[in-house]
Amino acid sequence: MNNDTTRFWGETTAFLALFLDNVGVLVFLSAILVCTFNYPTDIILTRMIPGTAMGIFFGDLIYTALAFRLAKKTGRRNVTAMPLGLDTPSTIGIAYAILGPAYLATHDAQLTWHIGMATLFMIGIVKIFCSFCGAWIQRVIPTAGLLGSIAGVGLLFLGFLPLIEIFNEVVVGMVAMGLIFSMLVGRMQLPGRMPGVLVAVILGTGLHFVLGYGGYLPEFTAPSLEMKLCIPVFSVAFLKTLPQSIQYLPLAIPFGILTIIGGINNTESARLAGDDYRTKDILLTEAFTSLVAAFFGGVAQTTPYIGHPAYKKMGATWWYTLLTGILVGVGAVIGLMSLFVGLIPRAVIAPIFIFIGFEIIHQAYKESPDAHSPAVSLSFLPVIASLVVIILNQFLGAAAVTPDKLPVRLQVLYSSLTLLSNGFIVTGLLWGSMLAFLIEHKARLAALCAMICAGLTLFGIIHSVQPTGEIYFPWQIPSQAHYMLALAYFLFSCILMTLSERRE
Q1: Maximum pairwise Cα distance, the chain
Q2: How far apart are CA 396 and CA 441, in angstroms?
Q3: Which of 86, 144, 350, 352 could crosslink 368 through cysteines, CB 3.0-4.6 Å?
Q4: How many percent of the chain have pLDDT more than 90?
């Protein structure tokens, strides 16, 4: 096999991997909103997906230009562009923790979409700010706290929930999982070096339709092959919903910070692989494209993907990002992306997300010192509460039962779960950081984390006493629950400070 053929297949494999990854995120975003929250499909396919695709379009084109510039500067032909796409954990998190609950609370699909745009706008602002101080944040916050809360999302939202999708269509899901895990985990190869993920998608999708038309899938519906022109329109109307969206700032901040930290790490990884990009260029691009996507109707942020060295080993240059950007962007406008989202079953994509979830968990434990593993694990617990509340709300809603109709003991349990789940990303970050500082015998810093928790609790940024997770001023809430929570954290902080003095 000559070099040109090798380069062609390497470029093709890299393109398919990046393209299908982005399609998979859009499939799950759509599936979560439609199947879990009964959100109208039309707005997803004609507004959310085309608007979100604009972030990928502009981002991959800019990264292609940066690779082309680096190749010209260094005189090398084998420069590999940074891969860019939708951030999987935050997209799943936004669907489950923001868009879905907002729709259940308002029953207004248009308003929910605008809340998603406003949240993405806030994420973009956070990312622009963090682009200039990301390295400082990385030094100050322990890795266990920074990555632990997102690893919890990886375990539960990317690991556990997709597993349910596999068992919903067990034949399709197991076939896809067998192929994808063999390729991605077992490092096996198919005959002729065919792309394993693509084969899994094609074979799994084919099985899905055979079983569906055969009457073996109870939830099967025949897909629409109609392609509609969906031109994203630049709009600022969503900014009117910022007051209603500010309650989601506790989610927007950590999601924005994490992708910036990831961008720093990925740029360093690319440098070690031989492509020395300027970190600021990489970070500002992902921040800018996330912000721009919001103005076109997008609801999910872009980020540089982990795996630049892997794409380089494939033999990819800048063609794969160029093709991905163009196909995603143009495909969204002509309705091709919406067609893919409608055709590819969730059970086929689910194993990819399980694999991604495992990688995120592995990274959290690997990048944290071994002694900090309890801190990483502690960060998972608020995410578990969030997942339990999401599932409980589905059952309660289907049964037309409100929490106040439950027995008293179950009301208390439901209230505790809600308090623990509201602001779960920030809670996990602070809990993980606090325990990491304690493990390092830095009790004063741990006490500071507890005191920050006390302050945030008063305003509902974490442990909001409102069922919807809204933030508030302390004096606006008639109950005393938030004061009791703040007092608990304050006493916890005092204990840590006292023990710190005794240790010294």
Answers
A1: 74
A2: 44
A3: 144
A4: 37
- Locate tokens 């990884």: which residue? 269
Coil, strand or helix: which one is 303? Answer: strand
Q: Which of 88, 73, 77, 85 is nearest to 32 (CA)?
A: 88
N-to-C CA span, the chain = 68
Strand 302-304 versus strand 84-86 pairing type: antiparallel
4 band by pLDDT with thresholds 50, 70 and 90: low
Q: Directed axis angle between helix 443-458 and helix 424-439, to 10°?
A: 160
Kindly list the distances between the CA atom of residue 426 and the CA atoms of 91, 151, 258, 349, 476, in Å, as whole numbers in the listed order: 17, 13, 12, 29, 22
| Residues in a beta bridge with 84 | 304
246-280: pLDDT as tens digits: 888 877 888 888 788 788 878 877 887 888 898 88
Question: Residue 86 pLDDT > 70, yes or no?
Answer: yes
Q: Can you spell out the DSSP letters for 376-388?
A: HHHHHHHHHHHHH
Helices and strands in the chain: count of H runs, count of E runs: 24, 2
Asked if residue 489 lies in contact with residue 454, where contact means CB atoms within 8 angstroms, the answer is yes
Per DSSP (E only), the strands in 244-339 are 302-304
* pLDDT value at residue 247: 82
Q: Break the chain down into helix, strand, coil percent, rounded to 5.
A: 75, 0, 20
**Which value, in Å, is the radius of gyration of the alpha carbons in the chain?**
23
Could you tell me how many residues make up the chain? 504
CB 158 within 8 A of CB 354: yes
| ∠ CA 272-354-424, rounded to 5° | 90
The predicted structure's pLDDT at residue 76:
85
Is-contact 168 219, C-beta < 8 A?
Answer: yes
Which residues partner with 86 through β-bridges?
302
